[in-house]
Amino acid sequence: MSRLALLLALALAPAQLAAQASPLAGEWSVTLATGMRNENGIETPIMQTGALSITAQGDSLVAIMKMQPPEGAPARPPSRMAAKVGMPAVFVLTSQATLNVNGERMVRTSVSTFTLTATGDVLTGTLSRTIEGIDFPSTPQPVTGSRVKQ
User: Fold this and answer.
1) Among 79, 80, 78, 77, which Cα is nearest to 61's?
2) How many angstroms from the chain centroid is the CA of residue 41?
3) What would the mean pLDDT of 103-111 be, rounded to a whole number?
4) Less crowded by CB within 10 Å, the N or C end of the chain?
5) What DSSP string describes 40-88?
6) Kind and range of the H or E element at 11?
């Protein structure tokens, strides 16, 4: 092996080992709030379940989220997001949100920030959202999950 190749391999090894060793890597069954319902000033989270697949790629974690659609609603396409290896891992997802405000339907850009930690086969964290054009404080909502046994 040439000296340059050896130095390059040694330089990249820590990031690759960190990603491979991430306790977040794997398949997860998750539960999280995918929206909020506001009726007469009372906010209630809309809870859904889904599958979260996290893989290590270099010094990053790449996640694919597939949510189960609510009854009678079409399936959403899978969402892809990435984070740097670390605990907690912070994934940011930009998507389109459909809102119904006082009977008026509108589409806005939504930024969802997932802050996730894994301890063994248990996933915990929070989900915070901001929605373009909507000025309200978003209380982080819990994200929970369990590792899917293969």
Assistant:
1) 80
2) 28
3) 88
4) C
5) TTEEEEEEEEEEEEEEEETTEEEEEEEEPPPTTSPPPPPEEEEEESSSS
6) helix 3-20
